[in-house]
Amino acid sequence: EELARADAPRLVLHFVALHHAAATLLAAGSEEQVARHMPAIRNGEIWCQGFSEPNAGSDLASLRTRAERRGDVYVVNGQKIWASGARDAAWCLLLARTDPAAPKRRGITYLLMDMRAPGVTVRPIRQITGEEHFCEIFLTDVEIPVENRVGAENDGWRIAQSTLNSERGGTMIELAERLARGLDWLVEL
Fold it and tell me: Which end of the chain has fewer CB atoms at under 10 Å, N or C?
């Protein structure tokens, strides 16, 4: 609300960090994850979201990116698409299937992935406007430490719903305030 009242620029590049990552960490992150990431988010660290996948449409539960636990790491292979700001992101909120035999909404694990990890490749998607805000993320044998798992293994669907609620809830306050200011401006004209 305060950003909108001040007519400050929208923090589009920091949207995932400020709204999704922060809300998820506060709701489901470990004390260590909160201590590590919240100060960095406050200081402007950029995050992206690795939820959507090619050929899945809006069916998030049909994801095919796999994470296989091998000792103290998950080895991740797959592809994500429409990851806003991924080319600039330091971290990614990542959903991966850890139990392929489980029903669609089960067997998904929520991970925090370092975007500089070996095996992470980001390819911008050029839009008709020439902008390249959205990206594809290709994951080839990416090792993510088990300590970067948010919540329990195979509980990622529930945690992802919490992430998406922050997008559909709190972020609408700023947009509603901006819309109200815009209407006031039109009435003045």
Answer: C
Strand positions, DSSP E, the chain: 47-50, 66-70, 73-80, 91-97, 108-114, 120-124, 135-145, 149-150
Do the Cβ atoms of 119 and 143 come closer than 8 Å?
Answer: yes
Residue 182 confidence (pLDDT) above 70:
no
The gap from C-alpha 133 to its chain's centroid, in whole angstroms, comes to: 14
As to burial, measured by CB atoms within 10 angstroms (0-12 exposed, 13-18 middle, 19+ buried), residue 23 is buried
Distance of CA 10 to the CA centre of its chain: 18
The model's pLDDT over 1-26, given as tens digits with 9 standing for 90+, comes to 676 677 766 666 777 888 889 999 99
CA torsion, ordered 9, 136, 121, 60, to nearest 10 deg: 100
pTM over 0.70: yes
Q: Which of 136, 167, 177, 188 is catalytic?
A: 167
